[in-house]
């Protein structure tokens, strides 16, 4: 496309525009199975530059695809229709950490964990903690409304976004929401969170921070199988206890974690549950004793983390679970369904049945307290028959979860990978209402087109 690269170089500087094949290759992929080649990649350093890039996209009638770290699991950052990828690597400044108001102002390319590191000197931290927190960006977290192990009690990204600066499809720069936590008029901040880059491009984020808790207790409980562990989860919540984290990994995952990371997971367990509670020191041990008593009914072992390094090792194991699965098979197809918590044992057993039927390895870990399951169908994409079986097994697992009253995605977003399932969960009128919101923000469907909704409707 003659003139495109020159126009982008004028909008930024030449060293931050990639038009050659080598420069674009790295932006063809994210952590999903999808891929697509952009026409150009740009690395803006300011909101004004982002607005100018959107202007160039209008001039050349091209899509614009925002991109953080490319750790998305649903293909959200894939330029599936070509166009310009706007990568936020260079907009990674923490502009302010305000101790008194417990808020931070950041650029979208800030890595999630870097904010917690910066806030720690003030006794504060940023609560949503995706397992990818050491690499994923806060812009990506906002776009996906990301969750994490500690979101059960504290809430997901949307509960922490106070305000957003956003570049719209017409290149206008707007502020949505407010530092005070409430704003006049429609809650467009809320609409933007989880919109997967389809309504606007986030250029600044005002975030709520939390005070670090006075005390924490962490428990590992091992079970013979996933049903018993799932039932313990239901019992803990039914007893009126709300841990900050209630995470479950199946036996296959526990073994893979232990072999690779030596986290302290019993390698012979059929399932491992991690339970964490926090608060003031007083009363915390009594609460943990209640949890231990519930688990003791069916657990083969329970063990408290006695030191901070033991606790850190357990979390390193849980958060490293997806990565170590690469040691079992080269590829994975991960799902993200949420089922009512009381149906977790049924869902977990059904996953094992589907895995056996298709002779596939399926390793599952879950934010059990939220009912948010991540079954990873493991396969080798070099074998076309195995790839087909993996897709079929994944689809059956997902439909089973939906039949249990579940939803498609707890935190990974719909993106490209799950858009084909939207008809199964939303009526045509519901989808039409959502599409009309998209059309109001972006009438020419320029911002991250082809994501969330199958195109054409029903297709
Ligand atoms: C090992 C591993 C573990 C993971 N664990 C979790 C987990 O525990 N919880 C969880 O929720 N997710 C998890 N994820 C998924 C992923 O890390 C999150 O979805 C994360 O928020 C993506 O951030 P990113 O910076 O990589 O965004 P990308 O993948 O680059 O983009 C994701 C989406 O955000 C949009 N986007 C990016 N920046 C902007 C912006 N500035 N403005 C508008 N839109 C933008 C993109 O267009 C795309 O639609 C995990 C992924 C991996 C690989």
Looking at this protein, list some descriptive labels.
Uridine Diphospho-n-acetylenolpyruvylglucosamine Reductase, domain 2; 4 domains; single chain; binds flavin-adenine dinucleotide; 5-stranded antiparallel beta sheet; Uridine Diphospho-n-acetylenolpyruvylglucosamine Reductase, domain 3; alpha+beta; 7-stranded antiparallel beta sheet
Describe this structure in words.
With 459 residues, the protein is α+β, with helices and mostly antiparallel strands. The protein folds into four domains: 84 residues, Uridine Diphospho-n-acetylenolpyruvylglucosamine Reductase, domain 2 (2-Layer Sandwich), CATH 3.30.43.10; 118 residues, Uridine Diphospho-n-acetylenolpyruvylglucosamine Reductase, domain 3 (2-Layer Sandwich); 108 residues, Alpha-Beta Plaits (2-Layer Sandwich), CATH 3.30.70; 106 residues, Alpha-Beta Plaits. Helix content is 34%, strand content 20%. It has 16 helices and 18 strands. The strands form four sheets. Strands 15-12-14-13-17-18-16 form a seven-stranded antiparallel sheet, with helices on both faces. The chain has a five-stranded antiparallel sheet with strand order 5-6-10-8-9. A four-stranded mixed sheet has the order 1-2-4-3. Strand 17 and strand 18 form a beta hairpin. The radius of gyration is 22 Å and the shape is globular. The chain starts with a helix and ends in an 18-residue tail after the last helix. The mean pLDDT is 95. The structure holds flavin-adenine dinucleotide. Flavin-adenine dinucleotide (FAD) binds next to strand 3, helix 5, strand 10 and helix 12.
């Amino acid at each position: 496309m003659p003139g495109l690269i020159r126009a982008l170089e004028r909008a930024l500087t030449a060293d931050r525009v990639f038009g050659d094949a080598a420069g674009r290759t790295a932006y063809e992929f994210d952590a999903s199975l999808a891929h697509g080649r952009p026409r150009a990649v740009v690395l803006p350093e300011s909101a004004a530059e982002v607005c100018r890039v959107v202007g160039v996209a209008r001039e050349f009638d091209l899509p614009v695809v925002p991109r953080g770290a490319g750790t998305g699991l649903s293909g959200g950052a894939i330029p599936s229709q070509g166009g310009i990828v706007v990568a936020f690597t260079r907009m990674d400044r923490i502009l302010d950490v305000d101790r008194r108001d417990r808020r931070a102002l950041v650029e979208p390319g800030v890595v999630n964990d870097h904010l917690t590191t910066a806030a720690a000197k003030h006794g504060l931290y940023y609560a949503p903690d995706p397992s990818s927190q050491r690499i994923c960006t806060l812009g990506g977290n906002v776009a996906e409304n990301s969750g994490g192990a500690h979101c059960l009690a504290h809430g997901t990204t949307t509960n922490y976004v106070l305000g957003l600066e956003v570049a719209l499809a017409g290149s206008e720069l707007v502020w949505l929401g407010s530092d005070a936590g409430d704003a006049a008029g429609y809650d467009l901040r809320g609409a933007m969170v989880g919109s997967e880059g389809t309504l606007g491009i986030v250029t600044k984020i005002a975030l709520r921070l939390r005070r670090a808790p006075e005390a924490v207790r962490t428990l590992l409980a091992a079970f013979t199988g996933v049903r018993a562990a799932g039932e313990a989860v239901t019992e803990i919540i039914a007893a009126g206890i709300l841990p900050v984290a209630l995470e479950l990994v199946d036996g296959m995952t526990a073994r893979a974690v232990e072999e690779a990371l030596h986290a302290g997971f019993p390698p012979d367990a059929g399932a491992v549950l991690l339970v964490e509670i926090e608060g003031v020191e007083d009363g915390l041990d009594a609460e943990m004793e209640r949890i231990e008593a519930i688990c003791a009914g069916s657990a083969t072992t329970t063990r408290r983390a006695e030191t901070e390094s033991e606790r850190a090792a357990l979390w390193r194991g849980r958060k490293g679970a997806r990565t170590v699965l690469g040691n079992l098979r080269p590829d994975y197809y991960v799902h993200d369904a949420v089922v009512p918590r009381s149906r977790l044992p049924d869902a977990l057993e059904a996953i094992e049945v589907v895995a056996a039927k298709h002779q596939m390895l399926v390793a599952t870990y879950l934010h059990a307290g939220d009912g948010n399951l991540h079954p990873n169908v493991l396969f080798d994409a070099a074998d076309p028959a195995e790839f087909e079986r993996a897709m079929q097994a994944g689809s059956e697992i997902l439909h089973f979860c939906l039949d249990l009253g579940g939803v498609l995605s707890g935190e990974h977003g719909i993106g490209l990978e799950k858009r084909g399932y939207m008809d199964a969960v939303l009526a045509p009128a519901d989808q039409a209402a959502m599409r009309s919101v998209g059309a109001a923000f972006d009438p020419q469907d320029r911002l991250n087109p082809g994501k969330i909704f199958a195109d054409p409707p029903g297709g």
